[in-house]
Specification:
Structural class: mainly alpha
Strand content: under 5%
Number of helices: 11
Helix content: 55-70%
Largest sheet: none
Number of strands: 0
Number of domains: 2
Shape: globular
Radius of gyration: 29 Å
Distance between the termini: 94 Å
Length: about 240
């Protein structure tokens, strides 16, 4: 079977028609209720043509994320956004311009594959930008942005892309300021005392276990002076 050139104008139109058909069907019926026949009928394309471009509907879905990734990097570079996480605002702007498509991808009627595909894309972009801070930080920040994006799209919030981007950066700034926080960095805490056999770290010299209560002089200071009269109550002015 001859594989079409993905840069051929006819191939691009075919792939775009299939992608738009898939998105519209997800919005109408949900991912689980559609098949390849439905997509081909909606796009006006034969099944044999479909299989020259994609192996199944999952590959069709994920191919859209590859195109989105390239578009985000181009948008960041074109505007000189070389700061960390420069992709977030272009992605939010793209979601604003394609609300129906993004609701199909991450809304209530989407599939776990659609959501995991977008999350994987965000993790990859975040990992590239935050490589010096470690994998744990990249996973944490990407997950936070993904959940904020899902909430924004699915709740039909009146906040704009710039508002959401500013909110995300304000919430994320303390995390980025802490520096590397991956497993390797955390494993070098050699001065932490090992737990005793009871599962608790040893007490410093002179310290008393909490179960024994405070020392006796402190107990005497805490007891009220019982000289036959009730302890004085503070006067209210």
């Amino acid at each position: 079977m001859k594989v079409p050139n993905p840069q051929d104008p006819r191939a691009l139109r075919t792939r775009q028609a299939l992608r738009e058909a898939l998105v519209s069907l997800i919005i109408e019926r949900g991912w689980d209720a559609i098949g390849i026949r439905d997509v081909c009928q909606r796009a006006g394309i034969g099944r044999s043509t479909f299989y020259t471009h994609f192996a199944d509907r999952e590959e069709l879905l994920l191919a859209g994320y590859d195109d989105l990734r390239k578009m985000l990097r181009r948008a960041s570079a074109a505007e000189g956004r070389w700061r960390a996480l420069a992709f977030t605002l272009p992605l939010l702007e793209h979601a604003e311009e394609n609300k129906r498509m993004f609701r199909a991808l991450v809304g209530r009627r989407s599939s776990e594959m659609a959501k995991s595909g977008l999350l994987r894309l965000i993790i990859e972009l975040t990992r590239e930008d935050l490589a010096p801070l470690g994998e744990a930080t990249a996973q944490y920040v990407a997950g936070a942005f993904f959940q904020l994006l899902v909430w924004w799209v699915d709740s039909r919030s009146q906040l704009g892309p710039g508002d959401i981007d500013a909110l995300f950066r304000r919430l994320t700034a303390p995390v980025l300021a802490t520096g590397p926080s991956d497993e390797a960095a955390l494993s070098h805490r050699g001065n932490t005392p090992r737990p005793s056999s009871g599962g608790l770290p040893p007490l410093p010299r002179g310290a008393r276990p909490a179960s024994q209560g405070p020392p006796r002089p402190l107990l005497r200071r805490l007891r009220p002076q019982c000289s036959g009269a009730s302890p004085r109550r503070p006067r209210l002015s």
